[in-house]
Write a structure and sequence with these properties.
The structure is a homodimer.
Chain A: H1 11-17, H2 24-35, H3 42-50, H4 58-70, E1 74-77, E2 85-88, E3 95-99, E4 105-108, H5 111-123, E5 126-139
Parallel strand pairs in A: 3-5
Antiparallel strand pairs in A: 1-2, 3-4
Chain A binds a DNA duplex (30 and 30 nucleotides) through helix 2 and helix 4.
DNA sequence: AATGCAAATGCAAATCGTTTGCAATAAAAA
DNA sequence: TTTTTATTGCAAACGATTTGCATTTGCATT
């Protein structure tokens, strides 16, 4: 995997290698998604992008998200109700707990659950390629 | 839980008990969702309903799905991209294994996973309202 | 550095799934 | 049967996303 001077994955090089043009909007969007650690939706990415270049369009954000998704740079989450939300892919796998009241997304990981899933799939005669586990919950009020 | 003459859950009685009027459209929609064993979307339910009553409207289908969801009669699945799809909420909860090659949906259930989810949520300070676990897999070729 | 051209952009309009306002209708209560 | 009130159908509004098209841009080539 191509890295840049800072040791991080160099998405521009990766994409260029795949024959994709690095344009000004793409560079900006790429920076936004690789620097954030939350799960912004397209409009939120657009809002941030506009601060760096007044005439980036929302269409371009959508088109770029689709492109980056296809190239595995980001991951799309379709949480119930709202718009798709995106996350910079590549770290290790984790699942999500969604706060139904605030929309907050909390990441977590459980090796036990991962292992159980494999077992279940094996029993059913399948190999798991990927999976999605979303818990929808409400913050517990301390008694 | 109220049952009717055939021994199945009597949704009409359940809803009436909750102060909800049983109208002609609702009766038809209720029958459709409780008789099917696939996961139709609102438009598909509408299409089936129209065959029984020419002037049922799509709005009524949407309104009824929301109503039934709130009363726990049905469950809503929000897949990425497409429309919400509904499923008659039977007695026991189950999760889904999706065959990525054929699109087949296999239902399964694991008490261990259910319990683990509760534990995790509790550790994070949340109460789970509902969850979604989808395994995407490929049928294992026997060696 | 200047050129050519396909790919990418911005904009507005279109599309898709879903919700809503409102006048007409029908369910249940009286 | 009349009254009360929820529910309906319709069309228009809605939010999220996609698309057609004329213009601009990246970038490979001179």
């Amino acid at each position: 995997m191509t890295k840049n001077a800072t040791g991080r994955v160099d998405h521009e090089a990766e994409l260029r290698k795949a024959g994709i043009r690095i344009t000004r909007p793409r560079r900006i969007i790429l920076r936004i998604v690789s620097e954030t650690d939350d799960h912004p939706d397209a409009y939120e990415i657009f809002r941030r992008a506009v601060q760096e270049d007044k005439n980036i369009s929302l269409s371009t954000v959508y088109r770029t998200m689709k492109l980056l998704e296809e190239h595995g740079t980001i991951q799309r989450h379709a949480f119930a109700g709202g718009p798709s939300r995106f996350e910079h892919a590549g770290e290790e796998h984790h699942d999500h707990l969604i706060d139904v009241e605030t929309g907050d997304v909390i990441e977590f990981r459980s090796d036990k659950i991962e292992k159980l899933q494999d077992e279940i799939a094996r029993e059913l005669g399948y190999d798991i390629l990927h999976h999605k586990l979303e818990l929808y919950g409400r913050k517990r009020r301390s008694a």
